[in-house]
Write a structure and sequence with these properties.
The chain has four helices and five strands, in the order E-H-E-H-E-E-H-E-H. By secondary structure, the protein is α/β, with parallel strands linked by helices.
Length: 175
């Protein structure tokens, strides 16, 4: 709670990679988070790869984030490698408790709600997988979609004012 005359708490966003790197394209979220973690982002943005540890994500969300961007392989019937931005409907959750060795984002958010009473706005950056069978490494279309997803996450964070747009006057690179 903010006292009169005090500054409001800082806005914070969590970018969470989820999925299993041992199931081929299900490692998409991890690959995107690795790229984003290497970029310079402000302290208001936390990037973390949660893999299949849903309970760890639930406890991280107790840190009062305003926005959660989940990155995962999501089968929606689109062509392989298609990247989508989806706002999750939190009213559709069913009160389940997350399995500590699995990742079900809705169950994680339900668990957060039981612990604290509210969840952040949740956006999902999903990629249509080719295969999620045993094996390490992304298929060619999903591997190519990693850069697309990184750009999309940055755009979302800019639109939500968690990061600033790059200043073309100070950008370094080829003319």
């Amino acid at each position: 709670m903010t006292r009169p005359g005090s500054d409001p708490p800082p806005r914070r966003a969590l970018v969470a990679g989820v999925g299993n790197i041992f199931l081929g394209d299900d490692g998409f979220g991890s690959a995107v988070c690795q790229r984003l973690a290497a970029e310079h982002l402000p302290p208001s943005v936390c990037v973390a790869d949660f893999g299949i540890a849903g309970i760890h994500l639930a406890y991280e969300l107790l840190e009062e984030y305003e926005l959660l961007v989940v990155i995962d392989a999501v089968g929606r019937g689109e062509p392989p490698g298609t990247v989508s931005l989806i706002e999750l409907d939190l009213a559709a959750t069913n009160g389940t408790i997350p399995d500590p060795h699995a990742m079900d984002v809705r169950a994680v958010l339900d668990h957060v709600a039981t612990l604290r009473g509210s969840s952040p706005r949740v956006l999902l950056v999903g990629c249509e997988p080719v295969q999620v069978d045993e094996g390490i490494g992304l298929s060619e279309p999903v591997g190519a979609a990693v850069d697309v997803a990184v750009r999309l996450v940055r755009e979302v964070l800019m639109r939500q004012r968690f990061i600033e747009e790059p200043n073309p006057a100070t950008a370094v690179g080829p003319a």
